[in-house]
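Board notes (copied after class):
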Amino acid sequence: MNALKVLVVDDSATGRTYVSRAVELSGVAAAGIRVAGNGLEALSDIERGGVDAVFLDLNMPVMNGFELVDKLSASGMISKIVVVVTSSEGNQARIEALKSKGVKFFMRKPFSAEQLKTVIDEIMISRSG
């Protein structure tokens, strides 16, 4: 099973740390966990390549998660990476719109490390199958 290259995108340092640590504790072989503080930083990182999964907050300055999903969807890059939205967003129509653009998973904050591990397990299964 290949190691997972992860990008955690959140404007909150606490949020980035929490998700990064939960990925580490999930037991998956992370080939590297990189972080970005907004969608523009994330887009630059993704365009350089080497990202398998993005854990994405929605509400951020500079470029928010919705805008990043739009850019990844329009460019076709979203088909090459797994996007997991991690947000307190509860609007079902907005969540469905994100999924229609290629977002694979939605995790409502606050979520547990166990919930995150379940999503990572599903990502790894889908990559090996």
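Comment from the instructor: Helices lie at 13-25, 39-48, 65-75, 92-100, 113-128. The chain has a mean pLDDT of 90.
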